[in-house]
Amino acid sequence: FHSPPLNDAEFEAKPMILLVGQYSTGKTTLIKYLLESDYPGIRIFPEPSTDRFISVMFGEHESIIPGNAL
Fold it and tell me: Is the model's pLDDT at 8 over the cut of 80?
């Protein structure tokens, strides 16, 4: 296993965390708990809702950016 050396930008960038798992196991509930609030685009259903992903980031105002635009 080999990875290239890290540059300064990688040390200064805000971290990103990927949360994955089986459906209906509490991923959205965990995010709501950590944020202490709902977030734009939140969807909780009894059946699987795996047709998209959400990126939650800090900002001055709430907005929704489609995942395919990231």
Answer: yes
What residue spans of 1-70 are helical by DSSP H?
A: 8-12, 27-35
Per-residue confidence band for 50, with pLDDT thresholds at 50, 70 and 90: low
DSSP type of residue 37: S
**Apex 6 CA angle, 5 and 11, nearest 5:** 165
pLDDT at 67 exceeding the cut of 70:
no
Question: In 10 A of CB 27, how many CB atoms?
Answer: 13
d(CA 61, CA 22): 31
